[in-house]
Amino acid sequence: MMAVGLNHFLVLSALLFVLGLLAVLTKKNAVTVLMGIELILNAANINFIAFSRYADTDLDGQLFALFVIITAAAGAAVALAIVLNIYKQMRSVNLDEADTLAG
Amino acid sequence: MLLHFAAPFIFVIVAAAFIALNLLISRLLQPRVPSAGKNTTYECGEIPIGSSWVQFNIRFYVITLIFVIFDVEIVFLVPWAVVFKDLGWFAFVEVVIFVFILLVGLAYAWRKGDLEWDKPETGKFARDAAPQLFEEVGTERQQTVQEVTL
Amino acid sequence: MEFSHFLQINLASLPYFIPELMLVATLLALIIIDLVMKKPSSSGWLAVVALAGVLITLITVVNQYNLDSRSLFNGMLVLDHFSLFFKVLFLLAASLAILFSMASIELAGRPVGEYFTLLIALVLGMFLMAASTNLIMIYISIELVSISSFVLAAYIKRATRSSEAGLKYAIYGAFSSGLMLYGFSLLYGLTGTLDLYQLANLLSDAVAQNPLVVFLAVLFILAGFGYKIAAVPFHFWAPDVYEGAPTPMTAFFSVGPKAAGFALLIRFFVSGMSQPSLVESTVWQAIGNVNWPQLLAVISAATMTLGNLIALVQNNVKRLLAYSSIAHAGYALMGTVVLTQEGYFATLFYLVAYYLMNMGAFLVVIVFQDLIGSEKIDDYRGLGYRAPLPAVAMGLFLFSLTGLPPTVGFIGKFYLFAALIKAGEQYYWLAVVGVLNSVVSLYYYVKIMKYMFLDRPSEEKATALPVAFGMNIMLIVLMVPILLFGLYWAPLQEFTRNSIQFFTGVF
User: Fold this and answer.
1) Contacts of C among chains (3+ CB pairs under 8 A)
2) What does the pLDDT look like over A12-63, one tens digit per residue?
3) Least enclosed by CB within 10 Å: which of B93, C320, C369, C386?
4) Measured between CA atoms, how close is A48 to chain C, in angstroms?
5) Do the interacting molecules here have an ipTM over 0.90?
6) Considering only CB atoms, which chain C residues are within 8 Å of B83?
7) Chain B residue with minimum CA distance to C386
């Protein structure tokens, strides 16, 4: 069998990235959009770890992935709290309905 | 190189064919007697009660949030612990400071009552107990200012 | 052991990190005081503590001016005049934001412990943004700024528009930083390093092998930076966030994080993506044939044109100023596309001018919001007669934003255009676009003035408005430097020129 190489990881991460992009651009539910953003972040994480493992000997990439996980957790927590607050007020998390500010 | 993919590819085809064949056979053989009972959710033969779309209590959210934040900090502590002996005291002091800052965060969550399952009706802060009162004071002030000016 | 060397460097870096440590101490003090204090009336004290922390930090930052440039924490951060310039700007913006928050009634009666804590965290994030030279550090500092500002924008929990502002800020912010991160990962894959200086060394090979991937990476990274400075096409969040957020925070967002975005943009492209020209020491060249200066020029032109055109049809002053601040990001970008010392000087000078005039304009919005409870241009009718000082101040700030003499805005724009013209013919078109935009912007700035001074107030509203004493003082404090630097700008020019000193790496 063929060994799994760098390219496989890159294709996987590119796929995840495009899926995340698609979710962000087409979905209207705020929670789904946030999930799409998580996909993008994790695509980047896969890139970092794969490059760190295959193309380079130092651990910079893996370290970066750790920090991304942490900040993504913090960011998601804040974003979800805001979504929750929006839901309390508007009874909806549809981004198209959050348009009181359009003008 | 392409040949390497032959085995999984054949596997996928066989698997798909197997499922399709089974569905086809059962479609051909099965008797069709539709009834309302058959459309309900299967719950061990019992008649299901209520909707299966249960809304979780919102308090779980806060607990989960606190858990996640304190969970991911482990990511920083584990690599440090692995090389603790090589790093020595300076790194130890750094980690103590890090944990101290986290503890301030925990103290914050505690003091604000987010660790309690039942939030007390009368909080330790008056503003926790009756935030709407403070809201009203704010709007009242705004109104008074407007009345004075108009 | 091999670690001890790194630890030594970290330990030796700590004395140069005192301003940031002061901010962390202030932040922790604010949380603890908020937890210990029993009554909500302690909010005044929290503001005082926050202000004191910011001012002490300012002193420590100014003390660092006589130090040489150096790299800190194993290449994570740098200390140079460029970062110090921005740190002073951030602290001045933060102290004004704290004063605005204390004076405004928008936050009256609300718990403010978290508010000031987050504000200080935001300042800390901006400090790191201005000083980072490592992709990890850049990402973390951007996230620190972003996450704090999401919460601050949504701070008024019961107001739908504030929550909505927070939601839009958070979604666009997370999305663009995701794109930027993907760009970083591509750059890391191509060069195998996260350090900006090593990146500059290794990039020409990467460009030779994979020009398309490098271009893609730069495009993604520009998404992250463009979001921070609200440049087209990553500006969508700005009007909604600026309109919905508490006004003192709007004033701060339009100045602080924007300046931090510029600091990061300039640092990233100067240290990581270009090299000093062999011919002249004040000029840089883009590495390889990735033509990102041209890309920046197009973004700059699109940003100012779009911002100004949409501002023309706004009838909410806060929203109008939001679009105007998008346009101003476009103006300031003009200085960064030419890759000369002159250009960077012009951008930095313009950011100072923009800080003064935009903070001023938003202060007037706060004053009127508190007095008449509205931000609509229609309600500004006749305010020139009812509250002369804020109205006159607004006039001065708007003149300065337009770029008319004798204000500091004029000097700033003059330097920007001068830098463009000096750089050569290929950017004349951008200068023409900039001048045309200034003319367009005159229309909507003058529209506000017309409502305030030429339209009489209706009979029942003809009474004078009682402007608070503190507000008057702050207005005058902001008006003086705008006029002063508009007539005698040599000190500011010298200070800014001294700030174009980048740490150039240790290799």
Assistant:
1) A, B
2) 999 999 999 999 988 888 889 999 999 999 999 999 999 998 876 678 899 9
3) B93
4) 5
5) yes
6) 3
7) B149
